[in-house]
Design goal:
The structure is a single chain. The protein is built from no helices and eleven strands. The protein is an all-beta fold and 115 residues long. Strands 2, 4, 5, 6, 9, 10 and 11 form a seven-stranded mixed sheet that branches. A four-stranded antiparallel sheet has the order 1-3-8-7, with no helix packed on it.
């Protein structure tokens, strides 16, 4: 099983980034996918979740109306479009695949929002 995140980097406040997470080694279309983040000195928090078919999504209040999670089951990839970035969005972002209590994790990608 492999989950490989990409697309992180440095963005200015108000800017945008698009994270990708490429999955392999399991039946991607059978798993819900989530993005989590962990800022220095803080606990990992759930950012967004998308159902296995892509029909349902949920967001943390802190990112609602700014972030959009999506997936392409043909490409085994999940995305996180992040708009109107704020300094408090600075964190390591992780993608996770989960089904029936089983979780697979990526290695994370750093997002830094600073002027």
């Amino acid at each position: 099983v492999q989950l490989v995140e990409s697309g992180g980097g440095l963005a200015q406040p108000g800017g945008s980034l698009r994270l990708s997470c490429a999955a392999s080694g399991f039946t991607f279309s059978s798993y819900a996918m989530s993005w989590y983040r962990q800022a220095p000195g803080k606990e990992r928090e759930l950012v967004a979740t998308i159902g296995s078919a892509g029909a349902s999504t949920n967001y943390a209040d802190s990112v609602k109306d700014r972030f959009t999670i999506s997936r392409d089951n043909a490409k085994n990839t999940v995305y996180l479009q992040m708009n109107d970035l704020k300094p408090e969005d600075t964190a390591v972002y992780y993608c996770a695949a989960h089904r029936l209590g089983r979780y697979y994790w990526g290695q994370g990608t750093q997002v830094t929002v600073s002027s």
